[in-house]
């Protein structure tokens, strides 16, 4: 990974954390920072072994912590926008803290991550949205690497909740956790794979595979041999047509992560092949045949539109790309 261009990641990061948005390639301080992106950035820094970035993103999560969860958005003037709660930022923060507890390079960082994770741990059972549940399961998986059964009951509770979403919404033609395929979709089967890895219950593995297979079937164009993810301009609602535009980089990234994990767990080569196809979405294997990679900055354009790429290069886009890229580097090691 030494030859990967990280200029834009560093450009977007200051002493507070990673900024959320860009106007074209210029970080937009007026839009502030968010817990979601700093949690993902912490995971990325841990995997890249960028020791100068790890304390920045970890400090952000510490500052976002409250007894009720994590604040979500930080203004330019360092005031928090939203009330804290166990919602999306909570799940992402717990996934990042769990990983930091195991893999951070310094003992004090690992200890800080464990301490903060355990302060927020009692809220885990309150997670009620599928993506929050999936992310929290991932965090608990890592935390249990330190103390094997400390959160076992919580993983069972959350895995059964996520399985319940799947069973309640699925039928013969629709094998998904909700009545629409919307945002960061690969995260849901990924959570089930981690539930299986945590507990060894084959029920979770079966749901993980079945739902990932359905997600691939629903987003891969067999004729064009490309992924076409649901765009945010309508998503893909059960019984309706899939929205083609407003496709976002996080979809390719989460598909890569889910497929690589599926390959690691099942050893089925098809998942690695689909991971590579999903990754090629960034470089032009998409519905408009345009690369989303800005070779000059190292940034990633924010999405696909009818008229071309969205020229802004926000934090979510570059982080999703680099996390996906690291999946393949990890396969080599």
Task: Give a structural overview.
This protein has 333 residues and is mainly α. 52% of the residues lie in helices and 8% in strands. It is built from twelve helices and twelve strands. A two-stranded antiparallel ribbon has the order 1-2. Strands 3-6 form a two-stranded antiparallel ribbon. A two-stranded antiparallel ribbon has the order 4-5. Strand 11 (303-305) and strand 12 (308-310) form a beta hairpin. The mean pLDDT is 96.
Using brief descriptors, characterize the structure shown.
333 residues, mainly alpha, two-stranded antiparallel sheet, two-stranded antiparallel ribbon, 12 helices, 12 strands, globular
Rg is 19 Å
Assign a percent range to the helix content.
40-55%
**What best-fitting shape do the alpha-carbon axes yield?**
globular
User: Proportion of β residues?
Assistant: 5-15%
Q: Which class of secondary structure composition applies to the elements? A: mainly alpha
Distance between the termini: 11 Å
* Number of discrete helical segments: 12
- According to DSSP, the number of beta strands is 12
What's the arrangement of secondary structure elements?
Blueprint: H1 7-12, E1 22-23, E2 26-27, E3 33-34, H2 35-48, H3 54-64, E4 65-66, E5 69-70, E6 73-74, H4 88-103, H5 107-120, H6 130-143, H7 152-169, E7 180-181, H8 187-199, H9 202-219, E8 220-221, E9 226-227, E10 236-237, H10 249-266, H11 269-280, E11 303-305, E12 308-310, H12 315-332
Antiparallel strand pairs: 1-2, 3-6, 4-5, 7-10, 8-9, 11-12
Helix pairs in contact: 2-3, 2-4, 2-12, 4-5, 4-6, 6-7, 6-8, 7-8, 8-9, 8-10, 9-10, 10-11, 10-12
């Amino acid at each position: 990974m030494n030859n990967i261009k990280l200029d834009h990641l560093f450009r977007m990061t200051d002493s507070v954390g990673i900024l959320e948005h860009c106007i074209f390639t210029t970080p937009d301080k007026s839009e502030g920072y968010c817990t979601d992106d700093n949690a993902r950035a912490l995971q990325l820094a841990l995997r890249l072994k960028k020791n100068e970035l790890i304390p920045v993103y970890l400090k952000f999560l510490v500052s976002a912590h409250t007894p009720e969860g994590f604040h979500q958005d930080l203004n330019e003037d360092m005031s928090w926008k939203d009330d804290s709660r166990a919602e999306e930022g909570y799940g992402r923060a717990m996934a990042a803290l769990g990983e930091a507890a195991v893999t951070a390079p310094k003992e004090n960082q690992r200890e800080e991550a464990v301490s903060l994770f355990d302060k927020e741990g009692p809220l885990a059972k309150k997670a009620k949205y599928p993506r929050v549940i999936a992310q929290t399961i991932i965090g608990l998986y890592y935390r249990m690497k330190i103390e094997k059964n400390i959160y076992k009951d919580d993983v069972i509770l959350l895995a059964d909740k996520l399985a319940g979403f799947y069973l309640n919404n699925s039928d013969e033609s629709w094998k998904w956790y909700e009545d629409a395929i919307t945002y960061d979709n690969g995260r849901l089967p990924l959570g089930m794979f981690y539930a299986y890895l945590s507990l060894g219950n084959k029920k979770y593995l079966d749901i993980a595979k079945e739902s990932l297979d359905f997600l691939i079937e629903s987003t891969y164009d067999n004729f064009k041999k490309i992924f076409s993810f649901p765009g945010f301009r309508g998503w893909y609602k059960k019984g309706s047509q899939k929205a083609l535009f407003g496709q976002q980089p996080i979809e390719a990234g989460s598909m890569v992560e889910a497929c690589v994990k599926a390959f690691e767990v099942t050893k089925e080569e098809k998942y690695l092949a689909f991971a590579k196809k999903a990754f090629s979405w960034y470089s032009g294997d998409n519905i408009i045949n345009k690369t989303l990679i800005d070779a000059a900055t190292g940034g990633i354009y924010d999405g696909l539109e009818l008229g071309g790429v969205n020229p802004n290069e926000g934090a979510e886009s570059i982080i999703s790309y680099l996390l996906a890229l690291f999946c393949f580097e990890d396969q080599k090691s």
